[in-house]
Amino acid sequence: xxxxxxxxxxxxxxxxxxxxxxxxxxxxxxxxxxxxxxxxxxxxxxxxxxxxxxxxxxxxxxxxxxxxxxxxxxxxxxxxxxxxxxxxxxxxxxxxxxxxxxxxxxxxxxxxxxxxxxxxxxxxxxxxxxx
Length: 131
Prior knowledge:
Shape: elongated
Distance between the termini: 51 Å
Mean pLDDT: 77
């Protein structure tokens, strides 16, 4: 898992077409596998995020620079900067309250380990006679 996330992930930005698609396939399998463990929410969010890569790869290539380049040069539109800022702030909101058991944090940010929480209660009643 660490090897995929630290080393193989760079295949998504490779100039080799086969390497990009192979990396995307590995990530798709990686995020589909825990479906039964963490529920549907996290894998579906990751599927939506991963779907952006083929859209970028298959778009017609033009002279226009990408958003990352615009961000670094300070030419990103104000609406985009606002959306990025709101997303960054939303990552902090779950820390204001405790979403670990009730999963309210899923409304604001994404944490795979909070995606499928269950509560179970056990009550044992003891009577004076020991039963």
